[in-house]
Structures are given as C-alpha cells and as structure tokens.
C-alpha cells in the first residue's frame, strides 16, 4: 500500500471513496445520539447533513454510513465512520477509524480511498497523522495468502487530506505520518512472520528473513546454529532444540546510531522467544488448537519488527536484540521431565514440564544479551496460557524488577495505543520455583499463579539489570474479526517496544 499526506480541500479531491470521521456529541446518558463530523469543511457538512439528522447513524465506534454521488463533492462516494463519544475521543479511535475505512473498501474492490484529517482540539496533529498511517496499513493485512482461490483485495493507495497551512504544523504532521508508515509496515512485517506455517517458517528460514531485513535497513546481523549454541554453553536453549530435526537459529541483531550516544545512555537489549512450532515436547499438548502453535514465535517477531522500525527511526541509543529460535518436538532425543540442565549463566534447572520451554530459551537469551552489553532488558513471549486466564484477551501481561523502567514503558503506551497490565513479580513468589535437586524448577509447584512463576523463572537470569517481561500469549493472535483489523496475528508490542527504546535516546 502507498500512503500519502496532502494539504488540500477534501471537497475538491477526486476519489472513489472519501472518508470523514464523526463523533457523538451527546453528553447525557439518555440523550439521543448527536453525530457531528470532525471537519470544518462546509461542503462535507452540507452533503452529510440530511443523513446525520435522520437518526439512522449514531457515530458509534466502527459504525459506517455510505453516501453515493454526494452533492457538492468530487468524490464518487462519501463514507462516514463513527469514532464514538466526543468526550472520549483520542488518537486511538482515529487509528481504528482509518482501519475501518480500509476494511470497508477492500471487499468492495475499491483500490484507492482518501481520508479527511480529523479536526479536533483534543487531537495532537503529529500523533494523529501517525495513527492514521498506522491504522490504514495494519487494516490492509489479511491471513489468506495460501488460498489457491485467493482474491487479492489489497488497497493500493490511501491519501490523507488536510487543509492546514501553518508551516510548522505541516512539518510536524509530515514527520508523524512518516513515522506511522514505518511503524505500520514493521508491525505488518512481524504479523507476516507469525502467520507463516511451521513447515515454511523454520528456525533457519526465520534467520534468513531476519538477515535479509537487516541487510535492507542497515542493521548488523549474525545468525548461528547449534555449534555456536553449544560453544556458548547455552544448555537451556540446546535442551529445547534437541528433539527436533530442524536446526535451531541464534539470531543477533545490532543497531548502532550514527552519532555515539552520551556515556550514560543505556544499551537496550531486546530478547524474543522464537519457537517456530511448539508441540509441548514429551509433555505433549492436546491436539485441539495445536495448529495455532505456529504463533509461538510471536515474541521473536515483535523484536524483529521493532528492530526494523528502530533502524528507520534512528534513535540515538544502542540496541542489541537476541532471538532464540527452535522447535519443541517429542523425539527420542528430546529432553524429558525430570532432566536437570545447566543454563548459560551456570544455574541448574530441573525440568518438570517440557511444555514450559519458552522460558528456557529466554533464560539463555537474556543472559547472552547482557554479555553483549545490554544494560536495560525487555523480552516478549507467548509464554503462558495463564496470562490469558488472568487478563483476558485485551491486555498483555507486564512483569518487571524495576519500577522506573516500568514507568518509562507505560509512558509510551498512550502513544503506541497498546494495552499492558502490570502483574506481581516479587521475591516472595520465588519459593514456588525452588527445586529440591537443582537451583530452580522450570514450572511452579502448583497450578496457581502460572504467569507469575514463569516471570520469576526469567527474573533469575537478569540479575540486577532493569528488566521487563511481556507475556503476550493472550493478545498475539486475534480470533475475532474486528471492523478495523482482520483475525490472525496482531503484531502486538512492536509499537510499544519501539517507543520505549526511543525514550532512552540521548
């Protein structure tokens, strides 16, 4: 998709589909809806007035009203998209509204559309421009690429129209729009990786695609296999991969800013779980829904997508990313419940359940990232089903050993628009992973607090380094089609991680 921002009168712009946003200005609980367009254009207001007054359109979030051959406009069609209550309006509704417009056009064979930039004092211009680009790009993604009867319904062109004339505002909006394109495309890159079947996206193939992306955008990249893993004594990572015929991939990406950062600027470490298919190993999963376990590398995809965005946004901060990728399979050589393995850090781990494998590869990845110089750590993983039980499918879990680092991350969320909820990760939970024969067990001693005991396991491998763990198991795959987004991989955490990294730039 090509996206562009133009500064001209939307009423005079020829388009197959012109989109304008509307909000409900009614304030009382029992008042009838009072939809109003988010534009100062008199021509647009006049064309829509009879239909807004009819009462059939309430301007609820995602609601649409289509007008053909609108009077006084050069557009062939006028699409009015609701953003909900005016008092609750934010850029996140705008992001969804742009997605609704694209998803509306796709099945109707409309390859081009335009969107009127929403005019409201509550909406900052630069961030609004960014969310329009993000929303449009994310909405164009579909998961049906392997269907032989697939009809490509991609939108070729989205044009955002604004009548702004202030030069400073113009420049800020252009900058925000360009950032939105980078972030939207990077999120879709991550989603494409997650959507791939396990027989196609093997660890080796993930390494190849990551290396190609790094070469395109100027990142340093190394991809190693089992020999390097054994050389580094990554015993936890090696144990998980030993049951698969597919070789593992240890992927290391580095971003070096053009100007050396200030001496006290942290080096950011991004670590991703890259299990390209997870059967559960010897502790095999039930057959139902196992097909979705191709998504068990969504944490790795988030880090790869974030590095793609970071390379183009060029923040003045050093970043190193480690992805530990392999399959978890039930072979005769696979690791077993009851085994004791030694991680790269030297800690010994008693294996109670081979389906708790993601934390094992992350343990070695987190330790290695510190050896490569990281002084702030963040990892993302589809780690536990327990996080979905605890938080549902709207918020991802956030765990940390450092309040200041959490605050810096959560400060980025009003910009990224993603939802994370902090969960406990305090030392009184450590008893639940204490082993009788090794240093720690790879699961808790009971069914309770599974997401927290998984986080406590990871905490053992970060020491005093400020660290955040994102458990995205409940939000990395969307089973429900939304008006602004298809079902399938969400690409969650790409925007938030990128914004968090940028916050450290000197």
Quick rundown:
The protein is of the alpha/beta class. The protein contains 14 helices and 20 strands.
Task: Describe this protein with a few key phrases.
single chain; 506 residues; alpha/beta; Leucine Aminopeptidase, subunit E, domain 1; Aminopeptidase; 2 domains; eight-stranded mixed β-sheet; seven-stranded mixed β-sheet; 14 helices
Give your account of this protein's structure.
With 506 residues, this protein is an alpha/beta fold. It folds into two domains: 2-162, Leucine Aminopeptidase, subunit E, domain 1, CATH 3.40.220.10; 187-503, Aminopeptidase. It has 14 helices and 20 strands. The chain has helices at residues 42-53, 91-105, 125-139, 167-195, 203-217, 226-231, 235-241, 298-313, 358-371, 385-391, 403-410, 413-416, 450-459, 494-502; strands at residues 2-7, 18-24, 35-37, 64-68, 77-85, 112-116, 157-162, 220-224, 249-255, 268-278, 319-328, 340-342, 348-350, 376-381, 396-400, 420-422, 440-441, 467-471, 477-478, 488-489. It has an eight-stranded mixed beta sheet, sandwiched between helices. Strands 1, 2, 3, 4, 5, 6 and 7 form a seven-stranded mixed beta sheet that branches. Strands 12-13-17 form a three-stranded mixed beta sheet. Strand 12 and strand 13 form a beta hairpin. The active site is at residues 285, 359. Mn(2+) 2 binds at residues 273, 278, 296, 357. GO terms for molecular function: manganese ion binding; metalloaminopeptidase activity.
């Amino acid at each position: 998709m090509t996206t562009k921002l133009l500064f001209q009168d939307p009423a005079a712009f020829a388009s197959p589909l012109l989109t304008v946003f509307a909000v409900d200005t009614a304030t009382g609980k029992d008042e009838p809806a009072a939809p109003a367009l988010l534009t100062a254009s008199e021509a647009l207001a006049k064309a829509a007035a009879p239909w807004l007054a009819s009462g059939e359109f309430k301007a609820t979030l995602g609601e649409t009203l289509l007008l053909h051959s609108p009077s006084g406009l050069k557009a062939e069609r006028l699409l009015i998209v609701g953003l909900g209550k005016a008092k609750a309006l934010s850029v996140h509704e705008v992001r969804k509204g742009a997605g609704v417009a694209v998803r509306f056009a796709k099945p109707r064979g409309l390859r081009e559309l335009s969107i009127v930039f929403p005019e409201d004092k509550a909406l900052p211009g630069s961030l609004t421009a960014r969310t329009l680009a993000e929303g449009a790009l994310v909405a164009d993604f579909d998961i049906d690429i392997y269907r032989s009867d697939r009809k490509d319904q991609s939108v070729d062109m989205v044009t955002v129209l604004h009548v702004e004339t202030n030069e400073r505002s113009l420049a800020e909006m252009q900058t925000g729009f360009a950032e939105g394109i980078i972030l939207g495309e990077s999120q879709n890159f991550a989603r494409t990786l997650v959507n791939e079947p396990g027989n196609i996206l093997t660890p080796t193939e993930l390494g190849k695609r990551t290396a190609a992306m790094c070469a395109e955008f100027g990142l340093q990249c190394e991809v190693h296999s089992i020999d390097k893993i054994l050389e580094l004594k990554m015993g936890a990572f090696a144990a998980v991969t030993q049951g698969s015929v597919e070789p593992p991939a240890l992927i290391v990406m580095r971003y070096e800013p053009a100007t050396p950062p200030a001496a006290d600027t942290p080096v950011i470490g991004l670590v991703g779980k890259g299990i390209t298919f997870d059967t559960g190993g010897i502790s095999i999963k039930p057959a139902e829904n196992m097909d979705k376990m191709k998504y068990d590398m969504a944490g790795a995809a988030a880090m790869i997508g974030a590095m793609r965005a970071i390379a183009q946004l060029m923040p003045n901060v050093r970043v190193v990313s480690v992805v530990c990728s392999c399959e978890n399979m039930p072979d005769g050589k696979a690791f077993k419940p009851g085994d004791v393995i030694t991680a790269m850090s030297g800690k010994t781990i008693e294996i109670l359940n081979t389906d708790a494998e993601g934390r094992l590869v992350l343990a070695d990845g987190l330790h290695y990232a510190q050896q490569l110089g990281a002084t702030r750590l963040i990892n993302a993983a589809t780690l536990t089903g327990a996080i979905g039980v605890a938080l549902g499918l709207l918020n991802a879990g956030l765990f940390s050993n450092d309040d200041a680092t959490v605050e810096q991350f959560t400060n980025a969320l009003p910009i990224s628009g993603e939802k994370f909820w902090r969960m406990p990760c305090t030392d009184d939970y450590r008893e639940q992973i204490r082993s009788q024969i090794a240093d720690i067990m790879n699961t808790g001693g009971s069914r309770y607090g599974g997401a927290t005991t998984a986080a406590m396991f990871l905490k053992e491998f970060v020491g005093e380094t400020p660290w955040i763990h994102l458990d995205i198991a409940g939000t990395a795959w969307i089973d429900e089609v939304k008006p602004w987004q298809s079902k399938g991989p969400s690409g969650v955490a790409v925007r938030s991680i990128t914004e968090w990294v940028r916050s450290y730039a000197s």
